[in-house]
Structures are given as structure tokens and as C-alpha cells.
What does this fold into?
Amino acid sequence: METYNNVKNTLLNINQDLGLFIRKAGSIDGLSHHPLDAWKETTTRIHRQLAEEMIRVAVVGSVKSGKSTLINALFGGDYLKRGAGVVTSIVTKIRPGDSMRARLEFKTWDEINSELSQALVLFSAAHLGTDERSFDITREEDRTQLQQSLSSLNTEQLISNDTRDPNSVLITEYLKGYDRVKSFVYFEPSTHTFEKKDFYKQKDFVGDESLALYLKDVLLTLIAPEGFGENLEIADCQGSDSPNPLHLTMIQDYLLYAHLIIYVLSSRTGLRQADIKFLNIIKKMGLVRNIFFVLNCDFSEHEDLADLKRVAGRVRDELNMILPEPEVFAFSALYNLFNGLDRKEAPLARKDLLRLEQWREETDMVTFSDRETDRFVKALVGKISLNRFELLVQSNLERIFTVASSMEDWVQINKDLLNKDAGEVQTAFAEIDKRRQASDRVASVIKDTLDGTTRKLKRDLSVDVERFFDVQHSETIQGIIEFIDSYNVSIKDYEKDLETSGFLPTLYRIFQALREATNRYLAESVNPKLVDLVRVEEEKIKDVFDQVSGPYSLMIQDALDQHQRTMEKLGIRVPQRPFRRVEGPNIAMVKSDANLSIPPLVTTMRYSVRIKTDAILRLGFYSTLRTVRKLFKKRTGGELESAIRSLEDSVSRIKEQIQESITAHHLDYKENLKYQYLFKLVDMVSSTLYEALVDRVRAFTGSLSDITGLMENQRVARDQIVEEFVSLEKLVGGVLDKVRKVERLVGEQGPAYSGGPAQEMQITLR
Ligand SMILES: Nc1nc2c(ncn2[C@@H]2O[C@H](COP(=O)(O)OP(=O)(O)O)[C@@H](O)[C@H]2O)c(=O)[nH]1
Ligand SMILES: [Mg+2]
It folds into this structure.
């Protein structure tokens, strides 16, 4: 066996044979399509799984740690923008393919407007001096007005605590990019593909904040080094340390589906506070099992190899305190990238070439880095292969085997029946009909009890979910409420703002600070708990169905034994093969088959839309906005005091508003989680198990009665039909041979695969 791709292609090939079988069998006149339809559905699913299912690798780490550089080095070219910024932290996905392409998906105008309206909560009131109304960026008037109010703000108003107010940054960038991007954006989702010589234009797009902001998704297709294979997605996830908690949440959403995390650290900085925080979040989300750490070594930063090793040792020790036995690889991604390009004789910028030459002289460090790079690539490819085998090959091989064996039985039974005379057939039918009734009963018992199990399970899950989201008693929801309550807004700090900017802008700024802090709390404390809840519930689902699949399996085995005996008695030869226990369905597989995913975590942050500005501004102060400013100029002590009191009052109303809208929003999330995810998953797992069980007996008894018609009506054509069955028999026999061959290969190679195939790879990483 060469690589995973060969196995995959063989499986696809076998699956095609199964499809051919179904088509041929379907063309035999007078046959019922009953078992055929079920097989067809299965083969379609297998095809989709094999062709589309991705192994996902998430590359994460602080800004400028070298994520993009590492991915570039892996793919051997400067494809991703290095040193990109932080306003937009879009997840860039890279998949191997046969040509270079960049597919940019744009947000819709509605999505953009909704994002802007969230940023504009209280902003308009504070800066436009007008009432809130829904903002529409496509209206020139709205843009002009917003632009004017932005430029009327002084720098002091835009910068708080040394950082620019993230919402005005967002608004500014959106306005800045509008003209250049408007021809790409529509009310419907739209994409644009850059390819061939235009490929690199994507870098201008992604690298420019004001354009990148309009992007929803970026997918690059790159020619991968041999050995990477297909079905692979590597994601450049920037933003784990972004000041905007929404970015962190976007990464969390990706991590939920990642099979492997590559965590990049820079040797210039080592492990930083932001890393520790993020790693703890990953840990809370239950995702620490598959992490590789890359310590991206800057050769220029280290005196000598000993120094580099010291840093590596320290990082390892520090990581060890967060998670057990971290796998750390220390090498220079930029050196690998430059070196790879240089060896491919790709032109390097003069400055880069000079750096490369300088680094090459550091032979100790280069040798060390090369060794570590090899070790990393081997581990990476090994991990990917292992995942592929577990996720794609093993379970699909099992499915293919089940379908093929059923087909084999079905052909055998039909063929033998066709060779009997009318009397014998009559007897056979009477017997088989009895068997069919018996297995129908088994099937319906299974169905009923499974339905019962499903209902009870849903009730249990519902109780857990309700408890998690309960407004009064849930630790999580109460945690949010308490967090907001205890968030200390020291009005004193805002006195100066009050004087310079006036009442509403100050209120706006307090609101911003509070909302950012709340979002951060949601991202860091609530989302991990939510993910953990889902994991626990999925485990529950798995356990329940694992438990019931045992007894059901026995029932099926029993029914099958009886079928076998009946068939033998009737002189129908059915291939003997050992009974394979029907296992509880693989949850990951069911999820992917049904395209199920939990409601995105980012949606938990869209509560702002519910905030009622007028409730915050209800105070008479609002109407006297302009006079207030004047009053401050006079600095009458009593008036300042009353303004401060009003501010305090408004802050508590802001808090209430945020609390209310978050609570309401979480109720929505809860409903979605239950009905759109968990319940659907339960139903899918249940029906998958049912199908798997009943499939086993279907070949024996499924719609055999139809063959009576076939034989009576078409006695003349009988020989021809027998021939068709013989050819089907050959086809399915061939399939089973191939399946056994692949099984042997996988059996031999499977476990060794974790370290095996790297030798076959010609990754040009260095
Ligand atoms: N000197 C040096 N610079 C590096 C190295 N790796 C990355 N860089 C530079 O550091 C900057 C940030 O790297 P980038 O890959 O964009 O980081 P990201 O934000 O994590 O994607 C870029 O300008 C890179 O060229 C390295 O090993 N040595
Ligand atoms: Mg980057």
C-alpha cells in the first residue's frame, strides 16, 4: 500500500462497483427496489464521506508567533500574508488541490449591517445626537452622516485606555473599504475566486483590514507537497490574543471541528500570559488530546544553539505545568520557508536572501532546526494518516463490507430460487414468508424500544440543558449576571470624559467597556463550559446507544441463525460468514453524514441587538444633552454631581439591559442547541443504528415475495435473468475480494501508521 490516497481511491472504486450492482439489479424487470434503495443511500453516504470529509488541522497562537509563516513553509511558498493585522481575524483555510486558487466568500449586506448596528448601539445617540434607527451602509446618506460624526470625534474620544475604541475602528474600516468592495458584495451570499496569475491578489485583500472586514470565509487551494494527500484542511486561525473577544470565539468555533491543533509559539517571546490563558481555554473545552507545539525559532535572536535549547527547555517546562507531556518541536519556520524557496530557485527579496545567508552560517542551529523539522513533519503526517484511517477508512470499510455481504446473500437467494420448480418455490415462499414475518416482528420490536430509548434520552438531555441554562439556578447564567453586576465602573475615572465629551459619549464609552468585558467573559468562561456540556451530552448519547446495541445485536444474530437454517432446509446456499456484532454508531460519523453542528458560539455574542437603547436613555438627560455640555463648562459643583449621579443611574440600567438581553439570547441558544442539534443527533444516531441492524436481515427476507411475479410472468426470460444474477454475483464477489485485500492492508499498516509513512513523503520543508 502506498499512501492513504491509494486506499481511499480503492474504496471509492469499490463503492462505484456497488453502485453499478445497484443499477444492474434495478434494471431487472419485476424486482422490488426495496433493499436496493437502502443500499443506494448507504453508498451515496460513503461516497460523500470519502470524497468530502476533511481532516482539520487548526494552527493557532498569538499574533506574530509565525502561524502564517509555518503554513507557508509547509506548502513551500509565500502564499499567506505574513505579518497580517488584528482588526479582522478571519480563519483562512488551506486545502491541497491540483491548482492554486483563492476563494473569497463575502458577507452579505444584511450581515454587514447587522454587525454595524451592533457596533452602533448607543453610538448614534452619543455621537449623532439623533435617535437610533437602523443603519444601512448601502445608503449614501447613512455613510456620509456616519463619516461626519466619526470625523467630529476627537482622538481622545476614540482612544480609551491606550487602545482605539474597537467599535469605531470597525465602523471606520468598514466605511474606508466600502467603495473598493461594493462590487463584490450582495444581499445574497457571494464569492470571488482569484486564480492563476491573479492568485496573489488575494493577499492584498486579506492583508488590508478595510477589505478583509467584508470577508466571511477564505479558502485557498494550494498544490501540496506529496504525502499530504487530499481530505485535508489546514486553518490559519489568527486572533486568540486579539483584543476583540469575538475573534477568540470564531477560533473556538473552528476548534470544535479540528482533529489536530498546532500551537505556534515564538522563541522571541516564549510562553506569554495570553498563551497561558488560551491554553487553559482549550483545556476547558476538552481539546488537549491532540496538540503539537511549534516553537518558532528566530536564529537571529539566539546567541548560540545552547541558548536556543535553553529557551526550548523552559517553554517545555512551562507547558508541562498546563498540560501533561506536551509535544514540542523547535525550528525556524522562516528559515524553512526561505530555504525552500531558494532551493526551488524562486526569487527571494534581497533582504531575505541576505538573512538566509546569514542564518546558514549558524550551522549548529540549522542542523538542530532541520532535525526538529523532520521530526515535526513525520509526527504531523503520522497524525493525519492515523485520523484518516480511524475516521474515514475503518468505518467506511465496515459499511462497504456490510452492504456487499447483504448483496451477496441476496443474489444467492434469488439465484437459487430461480433454479427451483414451481412447487418448490411455493414451499420456499411459505417458509421465507414466515421468516419474514418473524424478522419484521424483530424489526418492529427494535423500532419500538429504540423509539422509547430515544424519547427517554431526549428527556434526559433536555433536563441537563435546561439546568445549564436555567436563569434562576444555573451557575453559568448566574455567573454571567454576577460578572456584570460586580463589574466595577468607577465613575470617577470618567469625570474627565464627562467634561471634555459630554454625557452621552461618556455613557457610550462606559457601555463599550462593559460590553467588551462581558464578551470576554463569555468567550473565556462561558463558551468552554458550553462546549464541555455538549461533549458530555454526546458521550451520554454514545453510551446509551452502545448499551442497547448489544442486546439488539443478539436478537439480530438469532434471527439470522434461523434464516440460515430455513435456507439450508430449502436447499438455498447462503454464504457462511462469522456474525459481526453491530456496534453503536460512531457519533462523529453520524454528525458528518447529517451535516450536524452545534449552533455557532459566535451567535451567543449577538445579544447586543436586543439592547433597548431607549431604556438606557430614558432619563430626561437625553433631551437636555446639549445643555449638559454647556453646564459642565461652567463647572458648577452641584451640576457635576447630578451628572455623575445620572451616569451611575444609567450604568445600572446598561447593566440590566445587557443582563436581560444575554439571558434572552441564551434562551434562544438553548432552544437551538436542543432542537437543532442534540435532538436531531439522537434521532440520527437512533435511525443509523436501526438501519445497521435491520440491514442485516433485509437481504434474506426483504421483498422476496416480489420474485414470484418475476418468475411467473417471465418464465421465458428466466435463463436470461439467471445470467444477470450470475453476473451480479461475480461483481459482488469481486467487491468482497477487494474489501478483504484492503482490510488486510489496513490491518497490517493501520497501527504502524502513526509513525510510518513519513519516509514516503517528499515534503520540501527545508
Ligand atoms: N526573524 C524571524 N522572523 C520570523 C520568523 N518567523 C516569522 N517571522 C516573521 O514574523 C512576522 C510574523 O509572522 P507571521 O507568520 O505573519 O505570524 P502570525 O501572525 O502568527 O501569522 C512576519 O513578518 C514573519 O516574516 C523567524 O523564525 N525568524
Ligand atoms: Mg498570520
